[in-house]
UniProtKB/TrEMBL annotation:
It comes from Balaenoptera musculus (Blue whale). The gene is GUF1. Residues 27-55 are annotated as: Disordered. This is Translation factor GUF1, mitochondrial isoform X1. HAMAP family: LepA (MF_00071). The keyword Membrane applies. Belongs to the GTP-binding elongation factor family. LepA subfamily.
Length: 689
């Protein structure tokens, strides 16, 4: 691998930048990437032998439908979902109470490092109450808006939710969003006020908020401390009393919904299923509605929270199923499984997730293309909200354009690729999906549609070809103490937002609703909101369609050459400030080196911003040497060959590893004061690991 003296500093800078963003968001920064060996050690537990060999099978017929409850825990970020799940697992004997259990269901390395849930996790709990044995299927969900697709999918397997609210912070933006997801799915909602042990806890105020915003009588709230275990048993009892058993029919033919799946290299696809009708057991022949292929069931079981094989799974129960699906494309989330020769009406499945941001993803080395392709396929099986389109770039080679639900989602996906699949990638600057309405019949014929979606700014069509451009908008919810309202309104105005609603949720907390252009909030809005409200305001948003916008394509030029990977689309009114900001940011992110380079932003042929930087130029293969041996010696070779490599870092969106490469014509300094022009006809990659 190529190395460059001082490269560690690049990576430290990238990590430091991330850390600053993360701290501002209230999220812990990731630890430095593990070494290859360490990455392998921290992978999910080895599943190379069947769990059936390890454990006694459970007889699930002990749990009739009326003794079954399926529920999710939903809440704003950090309000204590996973801690409550720990206590429920302990109370029901699923995990050892004497151990210091912390967020047991957050199994992924990325979740433990960042202290956030990104994947919904299922656990089947066995609980005796009033002389009856109950099966309580719990799904712990993520709180961050970027993972709300996980929440909505989880709710499809439930009849009720525990809506956890922090007794100090009260209702926050994701509390509202998650409540409405549950409400629209017509689920029973049990409000749980958590963290009553905190010094500043004010559960009575939170009860009133819940009554006012959600219209739930305050006497329905359960006040607990998940951390100390205070009153947690009453939560289990409320689940039994207030959440109805599933409405299912065990005598009907099998109808199972695949609501999640993972890929195991030894056992193939492991599908998480919720049974709406019938029974399934080992040896059954099942058919997938999606592929119409038939499979033999090798294993069924429940998660308690680890895999626990069972003889059978019955309608109303939630568990896992392994059926020899060896290819990731065979197990689609939202698929319906039925018994061979007993076809059923498929279950509604899930609305596909709508990506909010797109970024190019490329292998650091093109020889890694196939490995990365396979890693992306396996990870998207487990994270079906990511969309993948093939893409290619002059400088970065063949790759993909991936759609994510937000920037945190993008960072987490990238981190999971590295940690779970040892894959390193180059990510380009994220963009939102714009639309353009084409003006001529010829173009419509060429594109085969009148309205096209642009997920790569380099392909943004010229104004002469379109009648109008459209930009995505979202309905944002902000909850804040009222003393910050003025500043927040100014921030929203600066982001071209239109106010839609405003209401007090208690005496001094306010809920604001704004329509935002998505590109105005996707990058740094949350950070700005947090910093001007001293961390007290919370924010959530939902898709609100598209609106007409005056958009322009902005090119970024290095020494007069357009760099395709840096092209962006901006609103006309913001072009100058955005161009200036990008040039300044690029200047800061390029190391000051040996010769001058112009960084310019342009709208068509008009230059609107310029910065100058000194750039390091070398020919392929000499990075390390140049730094050590000195410039002049190497420079003589440049003049001879006229073929050099320029290395900069245009990739502003870096996470664990930063890579960059560009093909560029430019000028080179000969070390004695004169500038020679040159054409770069070759380029190589450089990785900062
Ligand atoms: N004092 C106190 N702290 C708590 C309580 N419950 C949870 N916490 C703390 O709150 C923080 C967040 O708890 P989590 O359980 O990870 O919250 P979460 O809602 O699962 O977080 P996300 O999955 O990231 O949305 C942790 O530091 C917990 O220790 C409680 O009852 N009292």
């Amino acid at each position: 691998m190529w190395t460059l003296a001082g490269q560690g500093c690049w990576r430290r800078c990238a990590l430091a930048a991330w850390a600053t963003r993360a701290v501002r968001r209230g999220l812990p920064a990731p630890r430095p990437a593990p070494t290859r060996g360490a990455a392998a050690e921290s992978k999910p537990p080895d599943r190379s032998y069947s769990s059936a060999d390890r454990k006694e099978k459970i007889d699930m017929s002990r749990f009739p439908v009326e003794n079954t409850r399926n529920f999710s825990i939903i809440a704003h970020v950090d309000h204590g979902k996973s801690t409550l799940a720990d206590r429920l697992l302990e109370l029901t004997g699923a995990i050892d109470k004497t151990k210091n259990n912390k967020q047991v269901l957050d199994k992924l390395q990325v979740e433990r490092e960042r202290g956030i849930t990104v994947k919904a996790q299922t656990a089947s709990l066995f609980y005796d109450y009033e002389g009856k044995q109950y099966l309580l299927n719990l799904i712990d969900t993520p709180g961050h808006v970027d993972f709300s697709y996980e929440v909505s999918r989880s709710l499809s397997a439930c009849q009720g939710v525990l809506l956890v609210v922090d007794a100090n912070e009260g209702i926050q933006a994701q509390t509202v969003a998650n409540f409405f997801l549950a409400f629209e799915a017509q689920l029973s909602v049990i409000p749980v006020i958590n963290k009553i042990d905190l010094k500043n806890a004010d559960p009575e105020r939170v009860e009133k908020q819940i009554e006012k915003v959600f219209d739930i009588p305050s006497d329905e709230c359960i006040k607990i401390s998940a951390k100390l275990g205070t009153n947690v048993e009453s939560v289990l009892q409320a689940v039994i009393k207030r959440i109805p058993p599933p409405k299912v029919h065990r005598k009907n033919p099998l109808r199972a919904l695949v609501f999640d799946s993972t890929f195991d290299q030894y056992r193939g696809v492991i599908a998480n299923v919720a049974l709406f009708d019938g029974v399934v057991s080992k040896g059954d022949k099942i058919v997938s509605v999606h592929t119409q292929k038939t499979y033999e069931v090798n294993e069924v079981g429940v998660l308690n929270p680890n895999e626990q094989p069972t003889h059978k799974l019955y309608a109303g129960q939630v568990g896992y199923l392994i059926a020899g699906m060896k290819d990731v494309t065979e197990a689609q989330i939202g698929d319906t499984l039925y018994l061979h020769k007993q076809p059923v009406e498929p279950l509604p499945g899930f609305k596909s997730a709508k990506p909010m941001v797109f970024a190019g993803m490329y292998p650091i080395d093109q020889s890694e293309y196939n490995n990365l392709k396979s890693a992306i396929e396996k990870l998207t099986l487990n994270d079906s909200s990511v969309t993948v389109h093939r893409d290619s770039s002059l400088a970065l080679g063949a790759g993909w354009r991936l759609g994510f639900l937000g920037l945190l989602h993008m960072e987490v996906f990238n981190q999971r690729l590295e940690q779970e699949y040892n894959a390193s990638v180059t990510l380009t600057t994220p963009t939102v999906p714009y639309k353009a309405v084409l003006s001529s019949a010829k173009l419509i014929k060429e594109y085969r549609e009148k309205e096209i979606t642009i997920i790569n700014p380099a392909q943004f069509p010229d104004k002469s070809k379109v009648t109008e451009y459209l930009e995505p908008i979202v309905l944002g919810t902000i909850i804040t103490p009222d003393e910050y309202t003025g500043k927040i309104m100014m921030l929203c105005q600066a982001r071209r937002a239109v106010q839609k609603n405003m209401m007090y949720i208690d005496q001094n907390r306010i809920m604001l609703k704004y329509l935002f252009p998505l590109n105005e909030i996707v990058v740094d809005f949350y950070d700005s909101l947090k910093s001007l409200s001293s961390g007290y305001a919370s924010f959530d948003y939902e898709d609100a369609g598209y609106q007409t916008a005056e958009l322009v394509k902005m090119d970024i030029l290095l020494n007069g050459n357009i760099v395709e990977e840096l092209v962006t689309v901006v609103h006309k009114d913001k072009a100058y400030s955005a161009g200036k900001a990008i040039c300044e940011r690029l200047k800061d992110s390029l190391p000051r080196q040996l010769f001058e380079i112009a960084i310019q932003a342009a709208l068509g042929s008009k230059i609107i911003a310029r910065e100058t930087n000194l750039i390091f130029v070398t020919k392929p293969g000499l990075y390390g040497n140049i730094w050590r041996k000195g410039w002049n010696q190497e420079n003589k070779e440049f003049q001879k060959k006229q073929e050099v490599l320029l290395v900069v870092s245009p990739v502003i969106w870096v996470t664990q590893k930063c890579t960059a490469k560009l093909k560029l014509s430019g000028m080179v300094h000969d070390g004695e004061g004169s500038i020679h022009s040159l054409t770069i006809s070759n380029y190589q990659k450089l990785s900062f690991s």
